[in-house]
Amino acid sequence: MSLLVRAVRTIRREGPDRMVLLTIRYISYTLKYHNRVNQLRPQIAKYVFKLTVVWVRLTVRVLHGLFPDKYTDTNPYRILYVDPSRIKRVSGLHDQRRRGWVIDGDWDRNCGRFIDQPIPRSIHQHYKKGKPWDETPLVDMYEDDRQFKHKCERIERLYNQIERDGFEPQFNLANESPTVAWNSVNATIAPQTDEITVDIGRDGELLWNMLGKHRLSIAKALNIEHIPILVFARHSEWQAIRAQLANEENVTIPDSRHPDLRDLK
Hints:
Elements: H1 3-14, H2 16-30, H3 33-38, H4 42-66, E1 80-82, E2 89-90, E3 102-103, H5 118-128, H6 145-165, H7 170-176, H8 178-184, E4 196-200, E5 206-208, H9 213-221, E6 227-235, H10 236-247
Parallel strand pairs: 2-5, 3-6, 4-6
Antiparallel strand pairs: 1-6, 4-5
Helix pairs in contact: 1-2, 5-9, 6-9, 7-8
């Protein structure tokens, strides 16, 4: 399918605003923008990141004013603190970074279980069931024994660090050891956005999206009570609940203690 045909279909189905945002994302992906920022000196990359955050926040705010049913009313970089055991399934928007978007449809239905993925299952079996790494699904992901051993060692170092130091937000790590934090970033623009990411379904369910798979699995294995997360997309029905709660009193909601509603109290 040509880019032109895809663009026309996107405009018809989702509107020109979404077409513009997807075009910007496509250009950013093509130019490997986040990789280029990561390669800058941390002092410079930090300011580039701040400019990017300002632009995204402003864009979402303006678009929410124009299309309140299509974009969130809250800060798209707002960190929520949640019990990791609440995150049980994988979002139907997995691998789609729709930061600040409000999306309808059934993407929050019939989602696969997080624990059924090889890495979460392997971490669970190793630390909770006592299985050796070579008896977990992780071994099937590597043909090279050295790569497999290196992966196991990396997971164990991360597990030991979290067990020893607790689960810290990435912005804390960036402030404490900026060079280490920036060198550890791989799939996002900066350490500050390298938190576990979720989408929120129509009933407020937290659905894992794409970042922090290892950390979420370890947090579950260690029974950590609260971890920081970032939200990409919200279901339109959940956003409607936020809107009602912001404008009305005595609104019936699925979970009055939901972390995504605390900014409305």
